[in-house]
């Protein structure tokens, strides 16, 4: 069955795995940066041992430079396995000066929100963006399972590298990562009354700023597996 909520041509960032880059959340540029709102190029596609693989590329252009005046290359490799999806994001500084960024994979999962829970976050430091996203409240997650009885928009700093999602539809999904140091849970509740019951976002993120000098790169991996 389909575990991820698919986007539409009219709203491509409202499903799938939108990229928040080079800014997560609000800031000097548009919400979550520009990478989720532009077309990426396919640089490679193949089938390796039966697993379809595609690599996408995004480079700076006049549009990106109007908001973030740096030269960069982003490479995004996606591998589809029989019961899992693996992604690798590589950010390369192709400029002659250093730059910094934050990022996240804003993954949408199909769900029945009343039955959704996420395990693995107990003990993590939290930044709760409800009610004021620009001034989040600091705290600590005390629950073994995080549920979604209302609006949820919460950052988990130093989150574990593996979380387990029960999507409320009878499926359990393990979300594991390398080098995504943080996590975000989001469901808009009545802010999106027509559809909030049908999805949840469990995001791997890098909330602390990444600094890259010229020719330096940063790599992070994610795996989404049905168990």
UniProtKB/TrEMBL annotation:
**What enzyme category does the UniProt record give?**
isomerase
Q: Specify the signal sequence span.
A: none
Q: Which reaction does it catalyse?
A: alpha-D-glucose 6-phosphate = beta-D-glucose 6-phosphate
Superkingdom is Eukaryota
Write down the Pfam families for this protein, in alphabetical order.
Aldose_epim
The GO biological-process annotations, alphabetized, read as: carbohydrate metabolic process
- Keywords of the record: Isomerase
Note the InterPro entries from the entry.
Answer: Aldose_1/G6P_1-epimerase, G6P_1-epimerase, Gal_mutarotase_sf_dom, GH-type_carb-bd
Stated EC number for the protein is: 5.1.3.15
Q: Mind listing the GO molecular function terms for this protein?
A: carbohydrate binding; glucose-6-phosphate 1-epimerase activity
Which Gene3D superfamilies is this protein grouped with? Answer: 2.70.98.10
Annotated Gene Ontology cellular components are: cytoplasm
Q: Which family does it belong to?
A: Belongs to the glucose-6-phosphate 1-epimerase family.
This chain belongs to which protein, by name? Answer: glucose-6-phosphate 1-epimerase
Organism annotation:
Aegilops tauschii subsp. strangulata (Goatgrass)
